[in-house]
Amino acid sequence: MSSRKKVLLKVIILGDSGVGKTSLMNQFVNKKFSNQYKATIGADFLTKEVIVDDRIVTMQIWDTAGQERFQSLGVAFYRGADCCVLVFDVTAPNTFKSLESWRDEFLIQASPRDPDHFPFVILGNKVDLDNRAVSAKRAQQWCQSKNDIPYFETSAKEAVNVELAFQTIARNALAQETEAELYNEFPDQIKLNANDNNRNRDGDNCAC
Amino acid sequence: MSCSSTEDLPDQYKELFTQDGVLLKACIGRPISDLNSIGMLCVVQNSDGTKCIEWRPNDLITIDSDTQDQEWAVVNTIGRRQRTLSGNMTSDYAAARARIVRIPLAELKTFKVTRNNQQMQFSTKSGVWQNTFYFQHGNAEIFVAYLKNHVKTAKTRHDRNTYVVVESNIDSQALNKSFTELDIFTENTTDVVWSLVSNFKQRPYETTMEAFSKLTDIVWSVLVYYGNEGLNGKRDVSEEVADLLTKSMSALEDTTSITKSDEYEVITVKPTLPPRPCIPRGTPLSTEKWEGLQDTEGRILEVEGVKQLIFRGGVAHSIRPAVWKYLLDYYPWRSTHSEIRKIQKRKTEEYFSMKLQWRSITERQESRFSEYRERKSLVEKDVNRTDRSHPFFAGDNNPNVLLLQDILMTYVMYNFDLGYVQGMSDVLAPLLLLLGNEVDSFWCFAGFMEKIASNFDMDQAGMKQQLLNLQQLLTFAVPDLAKHLASKDSGNMYFCFRWLLVWFKREFSFSDIMRLWEVLWTGLPCANFHLLICVAILDAEKDVLISKDYGFNEILKHVNDLSMCLDIDKILSTAEGIYHQLMSAPHLTDQIRIILGIPTAANNPNDRNEESESEDLGDEEPGRENARNQANGYTRI
C-alpha cells in the first residue's frame, strides 16, 4: 500500500436513463448541480484527483447513456474498469429493479478477473424528492444479498453523500487494484475492511 | 473599324473550354472546302450568358501568330481577340471567321462519341447529325466530360455512346446559371486536370509528351477563364489550379517508383488521393429565388435544381419553414397550393387522431400498461432536459416543452415499434423551434426520422454499420489518421457515436445545425454524405490527434470537446472537397463506392482511364455523373 506510483482508477457509472448519473458525476467533480444536463449520448468522462489513505489517485469517471439499447456500444468503455457504480432513482421502482441486469451485464461485458469480488457501489439517488418509492431497507437488503455491495443514499442536487460515496468508490477501487497487484495475497482482509467502512457509513446515512 | 459592326459574334464572350487538334469532318450546309480542316473545339459563353459549342479553324489562329505551335492555341486566341479589337483585321481573317461552326447549347439535342473517342457528332434536330468532328488525339471524352457540366444528359439504352440532352441550356434561368458557374469550378478544374494527370500517371510512355501538352493547354484555359472572371472575388482560382498542378506533379514524383530492366522500365504508382479542391460555399436560397421556382399554382418543378442550390448554400432563415416541409417530405415538391391545403387538412386530422389515442389512455389503463408507462416516463425525462438553456425551451412550465412531449408521445403512436429512443428529443427541438406549430413539427419530425430511423434500432445495427462505414471511408481518405486510431483501440470510431446518432445536433448551435441538416436532407452529392462530414471534422483534427499521440480516452475527450467549436461552412466545404477527391481517385474501391451509393466497378467496367470500345459495357458511366444521377433519383433514358 505504500507504493508511490501514480494511480488511475477507472470508474463506470451505470443505471437507467434519468436516474442522475451525469449529475452525480458533475456534483462530485465540479461541485455543482444543474437541471439542464442533457441526456448523455455516447459516452464521456471526467477526472478528479482524490486522496485515499495518503495516496493521490486520479479518478476517471465514465458516464454512459442509460437507455438499454445503447449498452451494446457502451461496453467498449467498460474495459479496464476498477469499480462500477450502479445508480437508481429512489422515486422510480423500475430503476431499482434494473440494478440486477445492469450488474450482470457489466460483469459479462467487462469480464473482470475476479467477478465475485469486483467492487460495485450502489447509489440510491434523488433522496431530496418527497415521492420516494424504494425504501432504504429494500435497497440495503438487495445489496447485502449481492455479496454486501456498499449502498449510499444520495442527492446530486443537494450534494448529499456524494463526496462520501465517491471516497468509498475510490477506496474500494484502489483495494481492488492493490489486490490485483498483490496477487490476492490478503484478499479477505481487504474486502472486510472495505465492507466495515461502508456498513458504518450506511448506518450514518440511512434515511429510514 | 469597330469590331461590333464587322463581327457576327458577340462583342464579349469568353472561352470556357478549348480542345485543339479537332478536324471538321462534316457539317450540313458548308462547302466541301471548309471540311477536313484542323481547328479547335471550344465551349464559349456569350455576353448574354448563353453558351455555344464552337469550332474554329486553325487558320484563324495562325493568321494572328503563324509562328506558334497549335498546342498553345488557347494562349494565341487571347492575343487574337485583343488584336481584333484594336482593328487589325484582314480579309483572310474575315474568311476564316466565316468558317466558324457554332452550335448553341440551347439547341443541342443529342451527341455521340464513336471510333474509340476519336469522333463526335452533334445534332440539333432529331434524326440528323449536322456536325461531325474528328479528334486527332483520340481524346473526345475530355470534351464530353466538360460538356456534361453544361447540359444535363442521359445515355440511350440502345447505344451507350449516344447522349441525349434532357435539359438543354441550363443557363436560361438565373438559378441554373449559378450552378453552371459552380460546376465549372468544382468539376472542370479538378476533374479535367486530374483526369489528365492520372492518365499521365497510368500510361507514362505513350502519353508523356502528349498529356503534358494537353495538360498545359487545359490549365491555361482554366487560368485564362478565372483570370478574367474570378469567382465572386472569393479566391484566386488561377493560383489554386497552379497549386493543384504543382501538387499533382510532386505527388507523382513521391508516389512513383521506377524499376529498370534492359528493355523497359516498370513504373509502379502507389495510390494516393488527388489533391482536395477547395470549394467555396454558396449563398442561401433566397425568398425571391424560392418564389421564382414555383409555378403559378405553387408547384416546384426544378426539384433537382432546388436541391442543388440548397446543397450549395442552404436556405435563407425566413423561408426555412416553407422549404423544410418539402425537404422532409411533408409536402410533395410538385403539389399545388390547393393540394397542399388538402394535405395540411388531412395530416392535421391524422395527427390529432393519433394524439387522442394516447391522450385518452386513463390512469388505470396506464397502470396495467408497463411498456407505455416506460415510454411516457422516458419522454418526460428527456423533454425536461432538452435544450432548456435555449430561451424557447427555458423556464418552468414552458409550453414548448409540453409540445415536445406531445409530439414525441404522438410519434410513439405513429411508430409504436420504434417508440421513443433517446436522441429523438434532440432531433425534434430545432424543428419545433423553427416551425412553432405542433402538427407541422410532427410531420417534419416523422420525415426526418424516416431518414435516420436506423440510428435508433434496438440492436443498434444501423449505428454499427455507420461506424464501420465511417472507419472505411477514413481509411481511404485519411489513412494516416485511420492508422493512428486503430493503434489506439479507437478503430471502432465509437467516439463519433454522438455525431452520428443525432446528426451532429450536440456539436453545433441551433443556427448551424439548421444549416447542416438542410444541406444533408438534399441527399446530395452522394449517399452517406454525413459520414464525409465526420471525415472532414476528423481530418481537421488529425494533426492534434496524431502529434499529441492521443490514446483512446484523450481521443474521445478531444472529440467530445469539439462541441460548439466547429465551423459549419468550413466543414461543409471540406466534406465536399473530400467527396470530389474520392470521386476522382483512380483507385477508388468498390467498398467506398457502395458506401457512397455509386455503381461499383463490377457494374462499371468503363473506368475513366479505360478507352477500349470492345468491352461489354453496361449503361453506366464513370464517377461523378453516376453518383449524381443515383443520388438524385435521376433516371437515365
TrEMBL record, chain A:
Any idea where this protein resides?
A: Late endosome membrane
Q: What organism is listed for this UniProt entry?
A: Pieris macdunnoughi
Name any GO cellular component annotation. phagocytic vesicle
Record-stated family: Belongs to the small GTPase superfamily. Rab family.
NCBIfam families given in the database record: small_GTP (TIGR00231)
Q: Does the keyword Membrane apply?
A: no
Q: Which UniProt keywords apply?
A: GTP-binding, Lipoprotein, Nucleotide-binding, Prenylation
Which PROSITE patterns does the entry mention?
RAB (PS51419), RAS (PS51421), RHO (PS51420)
Q: What is this protein called?
A: Rab7
GO MF term set: GTP binding; GTPase activity
Q: Which InterPro entries match?
A: P-loop_NTPase, Small_GTP-bd, Small_GTPase
* GO terms, biological process: endosome to lysosome transport; phagosome-lysosome fusion
Automatic annotation (TrEMBL), chain B:
Q: Where in the cell is it found?
A: Cytoplasm
Record region (Disordered): 603-637
Residue stretches of biased makeup (Polar residues)? 628-637
Keywords of the record: Acetylation, Cytoplasm, GTPase activation, Phosphoprotein
Q: Where is the composition biased (Acidic residues)?
A: 610-620
Pfam families found in the cross-reference section: PH_RBD, RabGAP-TBC
InterPro entries, per the entry = Rab-GAP-TBC_dom (IPR000195), Rab-GAP_TBC_sf (IPR035969), SGSM1/2_RBD (IPR021935)
GO MF annotations in UniProt: GTPase activator activity
Note whether Cytoplasm occurs among the keywords.
yes
Q: Which residues form the Rab-GAP TBC domain?
A: 314-524
Q: Does the keyword Zinc apply?
A: no
| Purpose of the protein | Acts as a GTPase activating protein for RAB7A. Does not act on RAB4, RAB5 or RAB6.
Subunit info here reads: Interacts with non-phosphorylated form of RAB8A; phosphorylation of RAB8A at 'Thr-72' disrupts this interaction. Interacts with ARMC12.
Protein name, entry field: TBC1 domain family member 15
Organism, per UniProt?
Answer: Pieris brassicae (White butterfly)
